[in-house]
Write a structure and sequence with these properties.
This protein has a domain of 95 residues: T-fold (Orthogonal Bundle). The two termini are 28 Å apart. It is globular and about 60 Å long. The strands form five sheets. It has an eight-stranded antiparallel sheet, with helices on one face. By secondary structure, the protein is of the alpha+beta class. The protein binds adenosine-5'-diphosphate and magnesium ion (MG) (2 copies). One magnesium ion binds next to loops. Its cofactor is Mg(2+). Belongs to the ApbE family. GO terms for molecular function: transferase activity.
Length: 309
């Protein structure tokens, strides 16, 4: 097959480099600008570090027990992330924001919280404190001071919106890469998955087509203090960085939002509990997931496939 000529747009969002590449066509510049605008719109709506984002305004202004109306985008994010929180029994929990901020995750400067302080912050977390009212497109939060963190899902959500938009315009070939959260459409790309110990070494090359790939690992982002390295994924139960059975988890799935959420969830849960989550997702929603992970300790590669069965 003759390869189509491709055009791309590059921009900075989600604190990372983002790229969207599609096949050459007459309105290619307009389409690429549309993709960038979508990504920026998702970031602007959901950024917990921007006090003016709709998400931050909600977390500041809601009143416990009262319905708070939100945009369709914010509702979509809340709905999908809360259902993953429920399915993973809280291992994935978008309400960890206060704890994440306290550790300095995102600021690059670790501040180790005292146990007492953590206990107070944990009281301000918990996905079960949020209930959604689909008819009113509203959320009811039953405690004060919740901080919602979109960090483990925003890029995946934006990528799915972009793919949807491109399909609407009958684009056949595309590749989207938001800081290692990828989606490949229409063509097969061979994606290198970084090794568990040494991120410079590939542990596998996987062919990907009409699928998303997302990785969560300690080395992807970490914070260092007094010679100790802390990962950026928090165990919501303890409020501390997870000591994972994995060093990195790469998820392959046909929806970018699930690849993004599940790489985080599996990192927190480990193989056994993580696979139970994957199976429940397939059984109840028909979403198929493959994953590849490096095991901490011996560095062995663990893999699981819904699609190769
Ligand atoms: P990346 O930062 O590369 O996108 P992830 O998708 O795994 O990696 O998201 C990590 C971010 O998710 C963290 O920086 C933090 O903001 C947030 N987070 C940390 N722990 C959890 C958790 N247990 N559940 C949901 N979100 C989390
Ligand atoms: Mg994620
Ligand atoms: Mg991610």
């Amino acid at each position: 097959m003759k390869k189509a000529k491709m055009r791309e747009v590059n921009f900075y969002a989600y604190e990372t480099y983002c790229m969207v590449r599609i096949e050459e066509r007459p309105e290619v510049s307009t389409l690429l600008a549309g993709c960038r605008d979508l990504a920026l719109q998702v970031e602007q709506t959901l950024n917990m570090y921007d006090e003016e984002s709709e998400l931050s305004v909600m977390c500041r202004d809601y009143r416990p027990g009262q319905p708070y109306e939100v945009s369709a985008l914010l509702y979509d994010f809340l709905d999908t992330s809360l259902s993953m929180a429920k399915r993973s029994n809280g291992a994935f929990d978008p309400t960890v924001g206060a704890v994440v901020k306290r550790w300095g995750i995102g600021s690059g400067e670790v501040r180790i919280p005292a146990e007492k302080e953590l206990a107070i912050l944990i009281n301000r977390t918990g996905y079960h404190h949020i209930r959604l009212l689909p008819d009113k497109r509203a959320a009811i939060i039953d405690i004060e001071g919740i901080t919602i963190d979109p960090g483990a899902i925003g890029k995946g959500l934006a990528i799915d919106y972009i793919i949807h938009y491109l399909k609407d315009y009958h684009v056949g070939q595309a590749c989207v890469d938001f800081g290692g959260n990828l989606y490949v459409m229409g063509d097969t790309y061979r994606i290198g998955v970084r090794g568990p110990e040494d991120p410079e070494k590939m542990m596998a090359i996987v062919p990907v087509k009409d699928q998303a790939v997302s990785t969560s690992s300690w080395y992807e982002h970490y914070i260092e203090r007094d010679g100790r390295v802390y990962g950026h994924l928090i165990d919501p139960a303890s409020g501390k960085p997870v000591e994972s059975e994995f060093t990195s988890v790469t998820v392959i799935c046909d929806r970018a939002i699930y690849a993004d959420m599940l790489s985080t969830a599996l990192y927190v849960l480990g193989a056994e509990k993580g696979e139970a989550v994957i199976r429940s997702l397939r059984e109840e929603s028909g979403i198929c997931v493959d994953y590849l992970a490096g095991r901490a300790g011996d560095g062995k590669i663990v893999s699981y496939s819904d699609t190769l069965k």
